[in-house]
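Annex B. Sample input.
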Amino acid sequence: MIIKFKDGTEKELLMLTHADLRGAGFQGADLRGADFQGADLRGADFQGANLRDANFEYADLRGADFQSANLQGADFGYADLRSANFGYADLRGADFEHADLQHVDFQGANLRGANLRYADLQRANLRNTDLQHADIRGANLDFSCLSLCCRSFDIKVDIEFAKQILYHVSKLDFEDNEGIKDAIRVFSNSASVIKRHGLSKV
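Annex B, continued. Sample output.
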């Protein structure tokens, strides 16, 4: 395979696993089922590429661009994806278990049924992202942006995330004639986010 890089150079590679592909350009390429396990793909450009069922396990993908790419069923387990861009990408059924997704842009992406268990999603942009039936149990979503719309229905969460949401609800300033805050106080005050960030109980 001939790989073109952003500096204009080209390189022929027989294997993609553990390869040095920093800044490589794969725009619009058909890479269905490609194996990039352990590869260094920092700053690589995959815009509009077909990467269905591709393997990116343990790859370094910091700053990579996957805008509008087809990544259905792709495996990003344990990958480093800090500051990557998945804007409007198709990520249905993708696997991000234990991936580092800090500061990742998922705006407009389709993550239906994706596995995000134990992923680090701190400060991730999840605006207008379809997360229906996605699994975020054990994930860290501190300071992330999650849309309050039907696209966030049926997300599979753990009890800690549920407590964190209830803690935020209890911090809202509203006329509580129905005793909602009293009903959820025990749960919201046991949220681990309180200790993690030195927050006050309600």
